[in-house]
Amino acid sequence: MSINTSNDEFVPFETTLFVRDHCLCLHTQRAARMLARRFDEALRPLGLKSGQFSLLMSLNRPQPPTLGSVAELLAMDRTTLTANLKPLERDGLIEVRPDNEDRRARRLVLTEKGCALLARAVPIWTKTHLDIESRLAAGSADRLRTDLTALLRDDDEKNH
């Protein structure tokens, strides 16, 4: 099927069906929302959402990361990351500190309370993750990760 790309003032329903069935963006968004709901539900007893778990996990490093490196890892702009950090900081799970060598830079520190919460969350994440992966065909989870990583790498190369 070809997509109507003329300047007509309407889009044929067949085009809607084609996009519904083939759009990688739509399929990825739907899957991401479903995955986030599953992890949100699993982590709810700890008072965490999936995005907060990912953010806390991204801070679990030998040396506290900079705000910029975390934003890059999570593919977020700094403003969105800063907004997502505020509740974690308010709850005493993280601290935002100036960098010792570059006072303009900020380091994100996982507090003792944040480490303890993350340690309680990891077994829940592991169980949920294994359950989701078990529903996929053998090897397809690895292939999906590889393909998504390739898309991110291609995007990074275009933007740098």
From TrEMBL:
<dbReference type="GO" id="GO:0006950">
    <property type="term" value="P:response to stress"/>
</dbReference>
<feature type="domain" description="HTH marR-type">
    <location>
        <begin position="21"/>
        <end position="153"/>
    </location>
</feature>
<dbReference type="InterPro" id="IPR036390">
    <property type="entry name" value="WH_DNA-bd_sf"/>
</dbReference>
<dbReference type="InterPro" id="IPR039422">
    <property type="entry name" value="MarR/SlyA-like"/>
</dbReference>
<protein>
    <recommendedName>
        <fullName>HTH marR-type domain-containing protein</fullName>
    </recommendedName>
</protein>
<dbReference type="Pfam" id="PF01047">
    <property type="entry name" value="MarR"/>
</dbReference>
<dbReference type="InterPro" id="IPR000835">
    <property type="entry name" value="HTH_MarR-typ"/>
</dbReference>
<dbReference type="InterPro" id="IPR036388">
    <property type="entry name" value="WH-like_DNA-bd_sf"/>
</dbReference>
<dbReference type="GO" id="GO:0003700">
    <property type="term" value="F:DNA-binding transcription factor activity"/>
</dbReference>
